[in-house]
Design goal:
The protein is mainly beta. The chain has 3 helices and 16 strands. It has one domain (2-296): Porin. It has helices at 2-17, 39-43, 57-60; strands at residues 72-79, 84-94, 99-115, 121-139, 144-157, 160-174, 181-191, 194-196, 199-201, 206-215, 218-227, 233-241, 246-253, 262-270, 273-281, 287-296. It starts with a helix and ends with a strand.
C-alpha cells in the first residue's frame, strides 16, 4: 500500500511539473525540487540562471548571489495544483570574501483518501516535502563567479519518510567586452538517493545553461534545461522596468504544453520592500499563482 501511495504522489508531481513527458518522466523522486521558486523568476518563464541577481539565486544559480550588495530576505507563497501549498523562505548576507545564504522550501499536499489493495478505505493521509539549503558564493576573478548550495532533503508520505543530501553547483560569467551580457551553467540535485521502504530512488539531476542581456530598462533571458528524467526544455523571459518601481514580465516554458507555455508577472518596489506576482497557467488543470515579498536591509 505504501508503494501505491508513493506512486500516486510522484505521478501527480511529475505530471504537473513536467507536462511534456518522455518514457523516463517521473522516474526520479524529489520532483518538488524542480518546482521553480520566486514570483519574479517564474513570471519570466523560469529563465533565470543567468539573471540570478536577487536572493532567489540560491535556487536558480548560487553563483549569482555574488551580485547582491546587501542583506536580502524573501518569502514566497504559491497556490499550486491539486491543492498543493508551496512555500519558500530565503535570506542572504554578503561577507568580506563572498555571500552566504540559506533557504527553506516546503511543499504540502492536501489530505488524500487512503485505500488498501482491495480498495477499502483506510482514512485520510497527508504528505509533505521540504529542503533545507545553505549556499556560499565567491568570485573566481572580476568577471567570473562561482557558488555552491548544500541541501538536506526530506519527504514524508503518511508514516513513511526518506532523506537525502545534494549539491547545486553554479558559475556565472560577466562578459567584459559586451557590457550587460551574462552566461551561466548550473548543475542541480547532485546527491544521494532517497529510500522509501525498500527502494532507493535517484534525485532529479538537472543541467542548466543560460544567457541574459540587460540594456537600459529591458532584460532578456534564456535557459536550456535538461533534467535527467525528461526531455530538454527551453525557457525564455523578458523583464521591462516601466518605472524605477514598477516592472512587467513575460515568459515562455516549452515544457508546459498543458496551456501554451506562457507566463506573466509583475513587480512593485517601494524603498526596501518589493512585491512580485507570477501567473503560470496549466490549462484544464487550473492555474498556479506565486506571490513573493522581498526585503532589502
Amino acid at each position: 500500500m505504501k508503494k501505491y501511495i508513493l506512486m500516486i504522489v510522484v505521478m501527480i508531481l511529475a505530471v504537473a511539473v513536467e507536462a511534456k513527458t518522455n518514457e523516463n518522466a517521473g522516474t526520479c523522486v524529489g520532483q518538488f525540487l524542480k518546482i521553480g521558486v520566486g514570483a519574479r523568476p517564474c513570471g519570466m518563464g523560469e529563465a533565470f540562471s543567468a539573471v540570478a541577481d536577487d536572493v532567489n539565486a540560491i535556487y536558480w544559480n548560487p553563483a549569482g548571489l555574488m551580485q547582491i550588495r546587501g542583506k536580502e530576505g524573501t518569502f514566497m507563497h504559491s497556490e499550486w495544483l491539486y491543492d498543493l501549498k508551496y512555500e519558500f523562505l530565503a535570506y542572504c548576507q554578503p561577507t568580506q570574501k563572498g555571500v552566504n545564504a540559506f533557504s527553506i522550501t516546503y511543499l504540502r499536499m492536501g489530505d488524500m483518501e487512503g485505500r488498501d489493495k482491495d480498495e477499502n478505505p483506510l482514512g485520510d493521509f497527508g504528505a509533505y516535502d521540504y529542503a533545507l539549503s545553505m549556499a556560499y558564493a565567491i568570485p573566481a576573478n572580476n568577471n567570473l563567479y562561482t557558488g555552491i548550495t548544500g541541501k538536506i532533503i526530506h519527504q514524508k508520505i503518511e508514516k513513511e519518510s526518506a532523506k537525502a543530501i545534494a549539491l547545486d553547483i553554479g558559475i556565472l560569467y560577466l562578459e567584459p567586452a559586451k557590457q550587460g551580457l551574462k552566461l551561466a551553467a548550473v548543475l542541480q540535485n547532485l546527491g544521494t538517493k532517497l529510500k522509501f521502504v525498500q527502494e532507493d530512488e535517484s534525485l532529479p539531476l538537472t543541467y542548466k545553461f543560460g544567457a541574459a542581456y540587460n540594456k537600459n530598462k529591458l532584460t532578456l533571458a534564456g535557459d536550456l534545461t535538461k533534467p535527467q528524467d525528461n526531455d530538454a526544455r527551453a525557457n525564455i523571459g523578458v523583464e521591462y522596468l516601466h518605472t524605477q518601481n514598477l516592472a512587467f514580465r513575460l515568459g515562455y516554458n516549452s515544457q508546459n504544453d498543458l496551456d501554451k507555455g506562457w507566463t506573466l508577472g509583475a513587480g512593485f518596489k517601494s524603498n526596501s520592500i518589493q512585491f512580485d506576482y507570477g501567473f503560470i497557467p496549466y490549462g484544464e488543470l487550473d492555474n498556479a499563482h506565486r506571490f513573493s515579498l522581498t526585503r532589502r536591509f
